[in-house]
Amino acid sequence: MFGLEWAELITTVIALALCGVVGGFLAGLLGIGGGMIFVPVFYYVFTVFFKVSPDVAMMLAAGTSLTCMIPTSITAAIAQYKRGNTNLETIKTWAPGMILGVLTGSLISSFYGGQWLAILFGVVMILNALNTFFRAKAKPMFDSLPGKFWQRVIGFLIACFSVMLGIGGGTLTVPVLNACNEEPHRSVGTSSAVSLFVCVPGAIILFATGTTPENAPVFTLGYVSFLAAVCVVPCSMFMATFGVAIGKKIAPATLKRIFALALFCVAVRMLISGLS
After folding, report:
1. Residue 77 backbone dihedrals phi, psi, to 5 degrees
2. Bigger pLDDT: 219 or 95?
3. Bridge-partner residues for 224, per DSSP?
4. What is the spatial distance between Cα 34 and Cα 36, in angstroms, rounded to a whole number?
């Protein structure tokens, strides 16, 4: 079925469902959109079970990840907003830069992407994890966010890299806001909105401009596997609200260290896959 033996199909569905459970929970808990879990799992499933070429598996993983994060990000963003954790002024200021960043990152992935994106994913996430872990209790580097022009540059860079890596935006937004003296829970809440802002247009562009890879799972269009999305989305949406509720009860420094450890483990695995 779907080009797989039944045992392989069951294993694939279970892996994708667990991916949705973990990714959705972390999306609510840490405001990261779930992409740091989705991308490595999708990359592994596409290359190992479906024999998709590693050169295009990363783009397929990124496009599918962004698609899966749309409902998860909506759920997490609404929950965070209701708890007063979203800085709407920051979102408004970053919006022009994020729109341009999404367009730029999507086009780079569609036309110039390859296995180098897996290596980039691992390197960026490892650096992010180390910075977050060792600075969990450190004082912010800046008293506040810079002026509007530089905030839009920040929004552009976050959106561009996030779309290329399929991580939504929250993974990079949280450390930036923490460094600029934003309260940790508010950083997480704002990053959930950033993830939504990045996922929707990014997924649409990769869906519309990508060429369906050879050996891709059935129901794959462009760089989006709807088979994977069907397995992941219900689980991730269900778990996102639990993550938000639990995150509210955790001390800020602990929240940062959980974020960093999870990020580091996934990043190392992805870097090894990209290099091999």
Report:
1. -65, -40
2. 95
3. 221
4. 6
Nearest to 174 by CA among 268, 103, 262, 61: 262
pTM: 0.79
Could you tell me the pLDDT band of residue 1, with boundaries at 50, 70 and 90? low
At 221 the three-state DSSP class reads strand
163 with 109: CB under 8 angstroms?
Answer: yes
> Is the separation of the CB atoms in 49 and 214 below 8 Å?
no
Asked whether the beta carbons of 119 and 271 are under 8 A apart, the reply is yes
Burial class, 84, CB count within 10 angstroms (exposed 0-12 / middle 13-18 / buried 19+)? exposed
Q: For the chain, give every domain's residue range.
A: 6-275
Average pLDDT on 128-154 reads: 83
How far apart are alpha carbons 65 and 224 in whole angstroms?
8
Per the listing, tokens 């295009």 go with 56
Residues near 22 by beta carbon (within 8 Å), at least 6 away in sequence = 37, 239
DSSP helix/strand/coil, 224: strand
Reading the block at residue 27, the tokens are 């999306």
pLDDT at 31: 59
Closest CA to 93 of 12, 197, 7: 197
92 DSSP β-pair partners: none
How many residues in the chain? 276
Which residues have C-beta within 8 Å of that of residue 107, sequence separation ≥ 6? 205, 209
Q: Is 276 helix (H, G, I), strand (E, B) or coil?
A: coil
For 221, other C-beta atoms within 10 Å of its C-beta total 13
Q: Amino acid letter at 268? A: V
Q: Is there a contact between 25 and 239 (Cβ–Cβ < 8 Å)?
A: yes
